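Input/output pair, single chain:
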Amino acid sequence: MWKFIVAYFIFQLVLFIVILLLTNRTDKKSATTKYIPVADVPEGFQKTSESFLDNKTNQPVFIYYNPTTGKRIYVQE
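Output:
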């Protein structure tokens, strides 16, 4: 009976570590948002009134919107 309990806790610990590693890896990928310069804004995008300050660089980031596709891009000016 004790072997089963110990094996169960070891399994739970290993599962927790695997999930933690997977979420850490995917979180790093999503956190790397790349802003494009104003000169590289594709044709058809319109500047919106939305903007925010990037936490890392303290630079303003403006949001451009394409009404035909619905795509949004983030532009650092």
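The mean pLDDT is 89. The first helix runs from residue 2 to 31.
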